[in-house]
Amino acid sequence: MTMWVFGYGSLLWKPGFEVAEQVVATLPGYARSFCMWSIHHRGTEEDPGLVLALDEDPRHACEGVALAVQAGKEDATLAYLRERELISSAYFEQTVDIDLVDGRRVQALAYVINRANRQYCGGLPLEQQAQIIAKAKGGMGPNTEYLYNTTRHLAEIGLHDPDLEWLSQRVRHLTS
């Protein structure tokens, strides 16, 4: 059985594991949102950045990609993803049903925000998000790079996220 991973943020442009197939997919009941303080990768404890997370919301659906893990690499991929995504207890690892653009419905691994965690910051106004992203830097680099790469990759695969597109334009203005 194929192991699938749902990518909605950095997994779109930097999966970090061998992908056998990539298909545009939708996860119903969740929104992609800059609702997580980044204190490791794109910010610090003293000056946190923001990263995307899946925030449960029955009114929304998140468009992203389904990444099929190369056969025989499932255990290594799971270990890698847990090290990468579960660096703190800000995410829950969940199995979710996603709808592939080709009509298939598959189960996929997804990392969903833990609203009880201190890193949860849902509901920040877009302007405040832009101000934070424009200046934050962490162990994986500037927060701007994370925003720009995610927005660009979504556009390359034909997906549009109006909030991310607005944030990209606003942050470019703030940093120019």
TrEMBL record:
Protein keywords: Lyase, Transferase
In the UniProt record, does the keyword Cytoplasm occur? no
Instruction: Return one GO MF term.
Output: glutathione specific gamma-glutamylcyclotransferase activity
Organism for this UniProt entry: Roseobacter cerasinus
Q: Name one GO biological process term.
A: glutathione catabolic process
Alphabetized InterPro entries for the sequence: ChaC, GGCT-like, GGCT-like_sf
Recorded hits in SUPFAM superfamilies, A to Z, give: Gamma-glutamyl cyclotransferase-like
The EC number(s) attached to this protein equal 4.3.2.7
Keyword Translocase recorded? no
Q: What is this protein called?
A: glutathione-specific gamma-glutamylcyclotransferase
